[in-house]
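Typical record is below.
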Amino acid sequence: MELGKETFANSGWRTALRKYMEMDERGCFNADPLDTTYEETLDQVATGRAVGVVQVASVLSEPLPLPPSCHGR
């Protein structure tokens, strides 16, 4: 690919977004996904009411310290 020749409008994102919108129209997502708990999503997958789950991994309450070898010293 030549630098500057590609655009967002002509990228694969348009196709991906179109497929995502089609999935939404077919009822593949919860009616209120922002009100679905992590536990509910796991239950939906476990009971066959969902084929997958997208969640934010926010289980670490604070960043872990880096070892000295990663400090660029």
User: Anything to note?
Assistant: The mean pLDDT is 77. The helical segments are 12-25, 38-46. The CA atoms of residues 10 and 16 lie 12 Å apart. The first helix runs from residue 12 to 25.
